[in-house]
Specification:
This protein is mostly helical. About 85% of the residues lie in helices and about 0% in strands. The chain has one domain. The protein is built from 5 helices and no strands. Keywords: Membrane, Transmembrane, Transmembrane helix.
Amino acid sequence: MCNEKSISYDSDGYSKSLDKLVAMSEKEYYVHLVDINRHQVVVARTLLWLAVILIGFDIAIIEWAYTKASKLPDLVPILTPCYFFVIFSIIFGVLAFAFSAIAIPAFGGYKPLYNNSWADYSNSAHEKLLSGQDSIYMNTLNDLLTNLDAACSKGNTTNAARGLKLRISSILTILSATFAGIGFIIFSFNYYLKA
Protein backbone atom coordinates (compact mmCIF):
# COMPACT_ATOMS: atom_id res chain seq x y z
CA MET A 1 0.00 0.00 0.00
CA CYS A 2 1.17 3.38 -0.87
CA ASN A 3 0.38 6.24 1.48
CA GLU A 4 0.43 9.40 -0.50
CA LYS A 5 0.25 12.59 1.45
CA SER A 6 -1.16 15.63 -0.16
CA ILE A 7 1.17 18.60 0.09
CA SER A 8 -0.44 21.77 1.33
CA TYR A 9 1.13 25.09 0.37
CA ASP A 10 0.68 28.23 2.43
CA SER A 11 0.27 30.64 -0.48
CA ASP A 12 -1.09 33.39 1.72
CA GLY A 13 1.85 33.19 4.12
CA TYR A 14 4.30 33.07 1.22
CA SER A 15 2.83 36.17 -0.42
CA LYS A 16 2.80 38.04 2.92
CA SER A 17 6.47 37.13 3.40
CA LEU A 18 7.27 38.39 -0.08
CA ASP A 19 5.38 41.63 0.69
CA LYS A 20 7.52 42.18 3.79
CA LEU A 21 10.73 41.38 1.94
CA VAL A 22 9.85 43.76 -0.89
CA ALA A 23 9.05 46.51 1.64
CA MET A 24 12.41 46.00 3.37
CA SER A 25 14.22 45.90 0.02
CA GLU A 26 12.54 49.14 -1.05
CA LYS A 27 13.83 50.84 2.10
CA GLU A 28 17.33 49.58 1.43
CA TYR A 29 17.06 50.69 -2.21
CA TYR A 30 16.11 54.23 -1.15
CA VAL A 31 18.91 54.29 1.41
CA HIS A 32 21.41 53.52 -1.37
CA LEU A 33 19.74 55.78 -3.91
CA VAL A 34 18.95 58.80 -1.74
CA ASP A 35 20.38 58.85 1.78
CA ILE A 36 23.94 57.61 1.27
CA ASN A 37 24.20 59.36 -2.10
CA ARG A 38 23.06 62.70 -0.63
CA HIS A 39 25.48 62.41 2.29
CA GLN A 40 28.40 61.56 0.02
CA VAL A 41 27.62 64.52 -2.25
CA VAL A 42 27.62 66.85 0.77
CA VAL A 43 30.97 65.43 1.92
CA ALA A 44 32.42 65.76 -1.60
CA ARG A 45 31.30 69.39 -1.90
CA THR A 46 32.76 70.18 1.52
CA LEU A 47 36.08 68.61 0.54
CA LEU A 48 36.02 70.55 -2.74
CA TRP A 49 35.65 73.84 -0.88
CA LEU A 50 38.29 72.88 1.66
CA ALA A 51 40.74 71.96 -1.12
CA VAL A 52 40.11 75.31 -2.85
CA ILE A 53 40.63 77.18 0.41
CA LEU A 54 43.88 75.32 1.06
CA ILE A 55 45.16 76.00 -2.46
CA GLY A 56 44.30 79.68 -2.02
CA PHE A 57 46.06 79.70 1.35
CA ASP A 58 49.13 78.10 -0.25
CA ILE A 59 49.25 80.75 -2.95
CA ALA A 60 48.84 83.44 -0.31
CA ILE A 61 51.75 81.95 1.67
CA ILE A 62 53.96 81.98 -1.43
CA GLU A 63 53.11 85.62 -2.16
CA TRP A 64 53.43 86.70 1.49
CA ALA A 65 56.73 84.84 1.97
CA TYR A 66 58.22 86.34 -1.19
CA THR A 67 57.10 89.85 -0.23
CA LYS A 68 58.58 89.54 3.27
CA ALA A 69 61.78 87.78 2.19
CA SER A 70 62.51 90.09 -0.74
CA LYS A 71 63.70 92.72 1.76
CA LEU A 72 66.34 90.35 3.13
CA PRO A 73 69.76 90.00 1.46
CA ASP A 74 69.85 86.17 1.45
CA LEU A 75 66.43 85.07 0.35
CA VAL A 76 67.02 81.61 -1.17
CA PRO A 77 67.76 79.74 2.11
CA ILE A 78 64.67 81.28 3.68
CA LEU A 79 62.24 80.62 0.82
CA THR A 80 63.40 77.18 -0.35
CA PRO A 81 62.18 75.10 2.63
CA CYS A 82 58.92 77.06 2.76
CA TYR A 83 58.28 76.70 -0.96
CA PHE A 84 59.14 72.99 -0.84
CA PHE A 85 56.37 72.26 1.65
CA VAL A 86 53.88 74.69 0.12
CA ILE A 87 54.33 73.21 -3.37
CA PHE A 88 53.63 69.74 -1.98
CA SER A 89 50.61 71.21 -0.21
CA ILE A 90 49.34 72.58 -3.53
CA ILE A 91 49.87 69.19 -5.22
CA PHE A 92 47.98 67.39 -2.44
CA GLY A 93 45.24 70.04 -2.61
CA VAL A 94 44.80 69.63 -6.37
CA LEU A 95 44.68 65.84 -6.01
CA ALA A 96 42.13 66.14 -3.18
CA PHE A 97 40.04 68.43 -5.38
CA ALA A 98 40.20 65.92 -8.25
CA PHE A 99 39.16 62.96 -6.08
CA SER A 100 36.30 64.97 -4.58
CA ALA A 101 35.08 66.07 -8.01
CA ILE A 102 35.19 62.50 -9.31
CA ALA A 103 33.20 61.32 -6.28
CA ILE A 104 30.24 63.55 -7.19
CA PRO A 105 27.81 61.39 -9.23
CA ALA A 106 27.28 64.02 -11.93
CA PHE A 107 31.01 64.06 -12.68
CA GLY A 108 31.89 60.46 -11.81
CA GLY A 109 29.72 58.93 -14.51
CA TYR A 110 27.69 56.73 -12.21
CA LYS A 111 24.94 54.73 -13.82
CA PRO A 112 21.46 54.30 -12.35
CA LEU A 113 20.91 51.43 -9.94
CA TYR A 114 18.18 49.93 -12.11
CA ASN A 115 18.43 50.20 -15.90
CA ASN A 116 15.07 48.75 -16.96
CA SER A 117 11.65 50.29 -16.63
CA TRP A 118 9.57 49.43 -13.60
CA ALA A 119 6.69 48.94 -16.05
CA ASP A 120 8.32 45.64 -17.02
CA TYR A 121 6.62 44.12 -13.97
CA SER A 122 3.15 45.09 -15.10
CA ASN A 123 3.89 43.79 -18.61
CA SER A 124 5.13 40.51 -17.19
CA ALA A 125 2.08 40.18 -14.93
CA HIS A 126 -0.22 40.94 -17.86
CA GLU A 127 1.43 38.26 -19.99
CA LYS A 128 1.05 35.72 -17.18
CA LEU A 129 -2.59 36.69 -16.78
CA LEU A 130 -3.26 36.21 -20.50
CA SER A 131 -1.57 32.83 -20.49
CA GLY A 132 -3.67 31.71 -17.51
CA GLN A 133 -0.82 31.16 -15.05
CA ASP A 134 -1.44 30.93 -11.33
CA SER A 135 0.32 32.87 -8.58
CA ILE A 136 0.84 36.04 -10.63
CA TYR A 137 1.08 38.18 -7.50
CA MET A 138 3.75 35.98 -5.90
CA ASN A 139 5.73 35.68 -9.13
CA THR A 140 5.66 39.44 -9.63
CA LEU A 141 6.79 40.03 -6.05
CA ASN A 142 9.55 37.48 -6.49
CA ASP A 143 10.75 39.19 -9.71
CA LEU A 144 10.59 42.57 -8.01
CA LEU A 145 12.54 41.30 -5.02
CA THR A 146 15.21 39.80 -7.29
CA ASN A 147 15.71 43.07 -9.17
CA LEU A 148 15.61 45.19 -6.00
CA ASP A 149 18.32 42.96 -4.55
CA ALA A 150 20.44 43.40 -7.68
CA ALA A 151 19.92 47.18 -7.59
CA CYS A 152 20.85 47.32 -3.89
CA SER A 153 23.98 45.30 -4.56
CA LYS A 154 24.94 47.68 -7.39
CA GLY A 155 24.21 50.66 -5.12
CA ASN A 156 26.38 49.19 -2.40
CA THR A 157 29.26 48.72 -4.84
CA THR A 158 28.85 52.25 -6.24
CA ASN A 159 28.64 53.86 -2.81
CA ALA A 160 31.66 51.90 -1.58
CA ALA A 161 33.72 53.07 -4.58
CA ARG A 162 32.60 56.66 -4.02
CA GLY A 163 33.38 56.33 -0.30
CA LEU A 164 36.91 55.18 -1.11
CA LYS A 165 37.45 58.25 -3.32
CA LEU A 166 36.17 60.49 -0.53
CA ARG A 167 38.49 58.85 2.02
CA ILE A 168 41.45 59.37 -0.31
CA SER A 169 40.38 62.98 -0.79
CA SER A 170 40.13 63.46 2.98
CA ILE A 171 43.63 62.08 3.51
CA LEU A 172 45.02 64.30 0.76
CA THR A 173 43.25 67.33 2.25
CA ILE A 174 44.77 66.61 5.67
CA LEU A 175 48.21 66.22 4.06
CA SER A 176 47.72 69.48 2.17
CA ALA A 177 46.80 71.35 5.36
CA THR A 178 49.71 69.78 7.25
CA PHE A 179 52.26 70.67 4.58
CA ALA A 180 50.87 74.22 4.31
CA GLY A 181 51.17 74.62 8.07
CA ILE A 182 54.72 73.26 8.09
CA GLY A 183 55.72 75.59 5.25
CA PHE A 184 54.18 78.57 7.06
CA ILE A 185 55.91 77.70 10.35
CA ILE A 186 59.29 77.11 8.67
CA PHE A 187 59.11 80.45 6.88
CA SER A 188 57.99 82.26 10.04
CA PHE A 189 60.88 80.85 12.10
CA ASN A 190 63.46 81.51 9.36
CA TYR A 191 62.19 85.00 8.68
CA TYR A 192 61.80 86.21 12.26
CA LEU A 193 65.05 84.63 13.43
CA LYS A 194 67.05 86.25 10.62
CA ALA A 195 65.23 89.56 10.51
